[in-house]
Design brief:
By secondary structure, this protein is an alpha/beta fold. The chain has 9 helices and 5 strands; from the N terminus they run H-H-H-H-E-H-E-H-E-H-E-H-E-H. It has 2 domains: 89 residues, Methionine synthase domain (Methyltransferase, Methionine Synthase (B12-binding Domains), Chain A, domain 1), CATH 1.10.1240.10; 121 residues, Rossmann fold. A 5-stranded parallel sheet has the order 2-1-3-4-5, sandwiched between helices. It starts with 11 loop residues before the first helix and ends with a helix. Bound molecules: CO-5-methoxybenzimidazolylcobamide.
């Protein structure tokens, strides 16, 4: 997030825009929801692309939160305030990210697996998929395997996207794959997995069809799984 003073190529206007993103990241870090909303709007009014505001403003702030939380320098109540601030900003971005896609290119069922309450990254994946023109059925958090089956039977979405943020809930991604196998539906869906502790190696191990390390890659992978260029 540091602005390089050596970069003579950057105009003053660009540096000022970066300043807004820096303040936005700071607002997320401080859990200042109204500021996060206002600064998101300000960044957009400076013609910054919604995706840049998301990645370099909101997500950048949350990344700092993650590091502090990991080192026990920040605690759950503060983390929740940061999450709320991030959500305030995301609500401003949501329609803009969604409107960049012209027509639905495919359907995706998305959820955070059973036992896992983390939804910030999953909701970013949701927004990016929508932005790329997918219709997304977001089942929320703590979603049991059978709920994914029921959603598939209702919506017939060919991609099942599973988020897990805890090493203890990663096995639930495998449980969903097994549930589709047991229901005789495995051949009808592509299963995409992601979340901070998840790796390609793990995806291969549990027989998932795809892994994506971040939301932008999740869009590319969903397209690849459906054969959309
Ligand atoms: Co939790 N938490 N948390 N937490 N939390 C982590 C994940 C942790 C890494 C922190 C740490 O200790 N270092 C750690 C997990 C360790 C592990 O298992 N490996 C942890 C823990 C331990 C816990 C609790 C057990 C803490 C406790 O109670 N003692 C508890 C568990 C609750 C539960 O789920 N049952 C818990 C609780 C919470 C809060 C409720 C306080 C809050 C969640 C609020 C919410 O989501 N509404 C929270 C938060 C915020 C975090 C951290 C700080 C930030 C997560 C986040 O939102 N990141 C996190 C630390 C960290 O990640 N550095 C941590 C920002 C977000 C944009 O990134 O979610 O990674 P991320 O999503 C990315 C990619 O991963 C990817 O794309 C996203 C955007 O690019 N992605 C996908 C995500 N899903 C994808 C799906 C895809 C593809 C890509 O395809 C389907």
């Amino acid at each position: 997030m540091e602005i390089s003073t050596q970069d003579g190529e950057r105009s003053m206007a660009e540096i000022m825009k970066s300043g807004t993103l820096e303040k936005l990241a700071q607002a997320v870090l401080e859990g200042a929801a109204e500021d996060a909303k206002r600064l998101t709007e300000k960044a957009l009014s400076e013609s910054l692309p919604p995706n840049t505001v998301l990645v370099e403003g909101l997500s950048a702030g949350m990344t700092v939160v993650g590091g502090l939380f990991r080192r026990n320098e920040m605690f759950i109540p503060e983390v929740l305030l940061s999450a709320r601030a991030m959500r305030f900003g995301m609500e401003v971005l949501r329609p803009l990210l969604a409107e960049t896609g012209a027509k639905p290119v495919g359907k995706v069922i998305l959820g955070t697996v059973a036992g896992d309450l983390h939804d910030i990254g999953k909701d970013i994946v949701h927004m990016m998929l929508e932005g790329a023109g997918f219709q997304v059925f977001n089942l929320g958090i703590n979603v049991e395997a059978h709920k994914f089956i029921e959603a598939f039977q209702e919506h017939k979405a060919p991609v099942i996207a599973l988020s897990a943020l805890l090493s203890t809930t990663m096995p639930q991604q495998k449980a969903v794959i097994e549930a589709f196998e047991k229901a005789g539906l495995r051949g009808e869906v592509k299963i995409l997995i992601g979340g901070a502790p998840v790796t390609q190696e793990y995806a291969d191990k549990i027989g998932a069809d795809g892994f994506a390390p971040d939301a932008a890659s999740a869009v590319l992978k969903a397209k690849e799984l459906l054969g959309i260029s």
